[in-house]
Amino acid sequence: MRPLTDNPILDFADDAFRFEPYVDVLHGAVEQAEPLPLTVGVFGSWGTGKSSFLRLWERRLKDRDVRTIWFNPWKYDRKVEVWAALLHTILAEMEGEEGLKEKALRLAKAATWLSVRAGLGTAATVATGGVIKGGDVDSLLTELSRGDAEQYRQINRFENDFRDAVREFVGAEGRLVVFVDDLDRCTPDSAMTVLESLKLFLGESQCVFVLALDLDVLAAVATNKFGDAFRDAPAEVVSGLAYLDKIVQLPFFLPDVGFDTLRTAFAPWVHRQVDGPAFWRLLQRGLGANPRRLKRFVNVFNMALEVSIAQSGSTAPGPVFHLQLAALLVIRSRHREFFHVLAADPTSWERLATYFRRMGDAADSRERDRYRSELPDELAPFRGDRALEGLLAAGGAEAVPAPSAETVRSMISTLRATAGPDDLGSTDG
Predict the structure, then answer these.
(1) 115-152 in b/e burial notation, b at 16+ Cβ within 10 A?
(2) Contacts (Cβ under 8 Å, ≥6 apart) of 37
(3) How many other C-beta atoms can be found within 10 angstroms of the C-beta atom of residue 275?
(4) Residue 43's beta-bridge partner residues?
(5) Residues 6+ positions from 285 with CB-CB distance below 8 Å
(6) Rounded to whole angstroms, how far apart are CA atoms 17 and 190?
(7) CA-closest candidate to residue 82, choices 71, 73, 91, 90
(8) Which helix (H) or strand (E) element contains residue 252?
(9) How far apart are CA 151 and CA 120, in angstroms?
(10) Cα–Cα distance between 427 and 289 in angstroms, integer?
(11) How is the chain split into domains, by residue range?
(12) Contact present, 349 and 392 (Cβ < 8 Å)
């Protein structure tokens, strides 16, 4: 059993999601952008391959000798550290460049003062990548507190110094591309800090900042920032689009990866005993075309099936069991409330599936009303769930026969052994 990892695609030779044409389109547009700076937004929902897309674009840029820097803000759990860490990442790259140490020192001094103002205090050493040592912070602040005009000029000159440092770093005709990935993982406060900190670095610098995030996260960020101001705002404002216009000059929405493409990419990792269109149609209905969700599903499913095979001894589970186990894992991942009902009463699968089929075959509204009245109270909340109906009561080649109560208990026990207790979450987490 080979598990699928969640590592991003790094090279076009491994581009199973077929992002290359889209990378080339965006690269061509940014390559012609003048004047700089420019902020690009690469938008996509959770698990759709934003990191892979950015890594492939980074590969394209490096092939053309364009300087790039990669920054992961989610690693910094205090919001006041995030912008400082971004500066640290850039300064760390510049420090090794001949002739840039003096400018890096001036930037670091300004960053120290900005860090203290932001509440970072003596942790300013982090903000400057070690250019300003911990023991130097107090003396620098003493100089600043005396009203040293030159020191204040250095702070106010931050934008120009940064512009000049970038120019020396990349050359008169070059550009520095800074990738800011995984904003989805940040708290709204931290994400907002990253977005607002960009104004420190933009000015007239030869920079392209590339932000990868979910538009829904941006909406949460904007709502968190402006609070009651959004209470009566139009829907398009609440969605974050209005705020997006102020931050990003070039938005790019990641193309959907087709399910057939994902099936081709992931099929070699699915357990050797499982194959056939019914399995993949079930996954398409239950999980959709989300790469990360499918990866995690395949890993958990493979492990659970291995355990089931080991438990069954000489009688290996057959194709029907494979589909039932896959359906139960989808239920655990995407229909948590029903999964808990099923764990308490394993007959609920067959009862709800029978209800769905009867409702589909009912001759008139009177018959449908009777079926509704006969449904137990604990199953009533699910009677309008079309996605769940598609899993439990699909007909023809799509059908997954309802397992016995004993089989349901056994499968739930297996999933708890391989995927953890029911309350740990889903394969999305």
Answers:
(1) bbebebeebbbbbbbebbeeebbeebbeebeeeeeebe
(2) 201, 202, 203, 204, 205, 206, 207, 208, 209
(3) 13
(4) 213, 253
(5) 387, 390, 391, 394, 398
(6) 30
(7) 73
(8) strand 250-253
(9) 19
(10) 14
(11) 12-253, 259-424
(12) yes
**Bridge partner list, 67:** 176
Whether omega before 403 lies within 30 degrees of 0, making that bond cis, reads no
- pTM, whole model, 2 decimals? 0.79
To the nearest 10°, report the CA torsion of 196, 198, 199, 201: 150
| Separation in Å, CA 395 to CA 248, 286, 321 | 47, 15, 17
Q: What does DSSP assign to residue 186?
A: S
Contact 253, 218 (CB under 8 A): no
Q: Which residue has the higher pLDDT, 259 or 427?
A: 259
Cα–Cα–Cα angle for 414, 420, 421, nearest 5°? 95
The continuous run of DSSP H or E covering 211 comes out as strand 207-213
The tokens of 120 are what?
Answer: 């970072």
Cα→Cα distances 91→96, 109, 124, 139, 159, Å:
9, 12, 13, 22, 14
Q: What residues are paired with 176 via a beta bridge?
A: 67, 207
**What residues does 69 pair with on adjacent strands?**
178
Nearest to 385 by CA among 428, 344, 352: 352
Please report the sign of the dihedral spanned by the C-alpha atoms of residue 397, residue 398, residue 399, residue 403.
positive
Element (H, E) at 414: helix 405-419
CATH class, 12-253 region: alpha beta
Question: How much helix, strand and coil, in percent to the nearest 5, is found in the chain?
Answer: 65, 5, 30
Closest listed residue to residue 209, CA positions, set 226, 197, 221 = 197
Tokens 């990669």 — which residue? 70
Q: What type of residue is 222?
A: A
Q: Which helix (H) or strand (E) holds 178?
A: strand 176-180
Report pLDDT digits (tens) over 334-357: 999 999 999 999 999 999 999 999
pLDDT > 70? residue 174: yes
Residue type, 87: L
Rounded to the nearest angstrom, the gap between the alpha carbon of residue 14 and the centroid of all alpha carbons in its chain is 20
Q: What percent of the chain has pLDDT over 90?
A: 44
Cis previous bond, 35, omega within 30: yes
